Amino acid sequence: MTMPELEFNDINCVYISKRNKANNCMCGCSGTYFYNEVNKIKAGKNRGYDVTAEEVNEKEVQSVLDLFVGYKGKKNIEVIEDKDNKYIFTIIISSIQYTIYTI
Fold first, then answer.
1. Which listed site, 12, 30, 90, 98, has its alpha carbon 20 to 30 Å from 4?
2. What's the Rg (C-alpha) of the chain?
3. Is the full-model pTM beyond 0.70?
């Protein structure tokens, strides 16, 4: 599956792993989640508790989106579609995992 066009407001959150921690646990111990301000209420409901102001970082969300746009259409982007037609996109570059979760 090819990655569809994404807009900034389509993104729920992004995940950036620590170097050499790609494809490890994604609970937050091996990386950090950054949330989109416009979707933080929905994100909080999805995970079961509120997204705090410290977790919102639109600069990081945009940075990861820009990274994916540069790689769009290439085979090294993992695309997962869940039952609710939400997508998860993952790419590993220089031992760092970047993941986008859509709303």
1. 30
2. 13
3. yes
